[in-house]
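Predict both folds.
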Amino acid sequence: MYSRQFKEPPAKIVQNGKAIFGTFLGVSPRLAIKGMRAPYAGVPLPAMISKFRIKSRLNYFFSIDKYIGMVEFFDFRVFGMAELHLWNKESGIKNVYHAVIPTRHHFIPLTTNKGICACYLRGRYMKFSWGRNHQHQALSFRLKGDSVRPDSEGFFFSPMDDDMHQDCMFVNPSPTSSRCSATWFSSMTVHGKLQQDKEIADESSGLAAMIMNRTYFKMHSISSKACGLGTIYKDTPNEKKIIFHLNYSNLDAADSDKNNDNILIVNGKPTTLPSVLMTHPFGLDKKWIIQDTESMVDLTFNPISSTSRHINVIAMRTTHNALYGTFDGVLLDSEGNKITLKNFPGIIDRIFLRSVL
């Protein structure tokens, strides 16, 4: 059966102009990838120039109480963006809150021991923070509504000593060995509350996953992320808390089975997954098919509600689609156990980026 072995994370991801590729249990002190030797067309440009093609992205997927959602931070060096996509799982109602942020040095921090990624614009407060000294990860937001969306406010706290907490790092060629993509994945249990339009909300618990990525981007790039979060066999002796993350893009390594950031967490135990192919033959808002060649991933995704956004800022164009829906199918863990999913909640996040920077 397919497997990738976890290794100890290196002190530095890039050493002497070359990346330390691999799958790691834990994360390096800094998610820094600049300094690759001749990353574009073999031309030995100074790191000061080539680093401008490095883009950063932080996704925080969560499912708590009757809500499922995703907070995204984009760092395009010349500007940043922050978004919250929120769905009510009972009604399917969606709300999206968006902010463009002026240029800021390392809007998404490089350090993994502690850091804050935040948007402080008036009416668009969103902050994700982490600190190993205090053993926590936390998300808070306070968002002003308008005529089409209500006010939203939430706070989630995740202790790092929880059984579901797991840190993994994936350093992959992107797509050649002269370029690098580094991903920090963190699974967690969340405790907190979320309220809309000043409704009364009780403290709840749920699941969340944070994915931070830093990559040497192409001028044209397209990627799709699938994240599922939920519990099966709930309130039984066989209860399983499950988080999985699958990624498919034109930035993937040439040998994507050996180098990818696909992972499954079952009750805190990680399983590396092979590369997958995500297709939507009937359209973005119709059934998606997600499969691998190793018989470990065989899923369909049925969208319930979607959001779409097109942004043209400076010399950059993005098309962003976020879909909430349910997964059906089968996953295998590292021990060969079959995990059958039915109406399992999750999100697919698809982004197209065209940039001349």
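Second protein follows, with its predicted structure tokens after the sequence.
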Amino acid sequence: MITDKEFTLRLIRQLTQALEKLILDKPEESLMQKELDFDSLMKDIFKFDFKELSSKSKEEIIEIVNERQERDHKDYYEMLGNLFYYNGKGEKNNDFLDKGKTFYELYLQTSGIFALPIINRINEIAKN
């Protein structure tokens, strides 16, 4: 039987992969192509939509992640990094890009993974 935590983690990974494809300009038939699906995913994961999430400070969002199990933090940070990076680039929103950079850095710290695409995105944001 699937628990709520496992289901949420699966949703996070699904959203992360969909965003990664969009960031790399390789959108397939993905969840991100329909706003409704995107919003419902956000509500399933966070209990509110992206607009509400993006209005929160980095500290408030980190606090939300810290309420989750520690082993899941890396998945949340990777998804949040992709989420804010993708929306920041699309909307040319420096606040979103800054949040994306922060969450990518936290992802690298918590995962211990050397992820060159993530590092390149951090460097790209830092140049702006």
